[in-house]
Design brief:
Elements (H helix, E strand, L loop, with lengths): L10 E5 L4 H12 L3 E6 L2 H13 L3 E6 L5 H15 L4 E4 L14 H29 L2 E6 L12 H21 L4 E8 L13 H9 L13 H8 L10 E4 L9
Parallel strand pairs: 1-2, 1-4, 2-3, 4-5, 5-6, 6-7
């Protein structure tokens, strides 16, 4: 069973790996044997994460990069291919949010959220997916959202952007399955992280927990199991799927 979930010898690129959720996923990949490349803009956070990875015996590095700059991603991909020879796993996890009433959403905010959350995923899939298609193998994990499945108040643009990610992932899964590349969406429920803490007022927290059968928020480490399933040979027949990790939130009605 351990070999089924092993990532020994694989190269995992984690865009947004300096964040809390994707950082935890990166730790999981490294613990399973992958060499992890954290891509982001914050070297301080990256070094803190890499210190934990290396202290546990894992292998990783940081590369500064901008998810919304395709030329930057091409540069990173070519560097990685020159150094490592391949990319086996890609996580598209960069994202931003803003709790704005619908009639107050201005164009600048709309453009910012759609650019990071949609264009960034498109570029990541295009750039690193191209290398995977040429190699005939790979696993892409796009970070989705509960708000793409269920209508959640106050996050209109974010919800629309994540719905686009879910749709894109299914389309790519269909397109690239014959080429050996799997594409799935990992859907976190409510995990307190930098991008959503501003939304978590006491009233909203009470509402969320009241609709979560497990009665608590998720912890970042609880995404590791699902991400290993999607990245490893254990998930070799899983593509085009939405793997929901939400403590039962999506199953709640009345």
């Amino acid at each position: 069973m351990s070999s089924l979930f092993s990532l020994q010898g694989r190269v995992a690129v984690v865009i947004g790996g300096t964040g809390e959720l994707c950082g935890a996923m990166a730790e999981g990949f490294a613990g399973a044997g992958a060499h992890v490349i954290l891509v982001g803009r914050d070297p301080v956070k990256a070094e803190a994460r890499l210190a934990k990875i290396k202290a546990a015996g894992g292998s990783g590095e940081f590369k500064a990069g901008e998810a919304t700059n395709k030329a930057d991603l091409v540069r990173l991909r070519d560097e990685i291919l020159a150094q490592r020879g391949k990319v086996d796993i890609l996580v598209n996890g960069a994202g931003v949010n803003s709790p704005t009433p619908f009639l107050e959403i201005d164009e600048a905010q709309l453009d910012r959220i759609l650019t990071v959350n949609v264009k960034g995923v498109v570029f990541g899939c295009q750039v690193f997916g191209e290398a995977m298609v040429k190699a005939g193998a790979g696993s892409i994990i796009n970070l989705g959202s509960e708000s793409a499945i269920l209508p959640l108040s106050r996050v209109f643009t974010y919800s629309a952007s994540k719905a686009a990610v879910h749709n894109l992932s299914k389309n790519l899964a269909r397109e690239w399955a014959p080429k050996g590349v799997r594409v799935n969406t990992l859907v976190p429920g409510f995990f307190p992280a930098e991008q959503n803490r501003k939304v978590l007022t006491p009233e909203r927290v009470a509402s969320i927990l009241g609709k979560t059968p497990m009665g608590r928020f998720g912890e970042a480490k609880e995404l590791v199991g699902a991400s290993l399933l999607l990245a490893s040979d254990a998930g070799s027949f899983i593509t085009g799927s939405e793997i929901v990790v939400d403590g039962g939130f999506a199953a709640m009605s009345i």
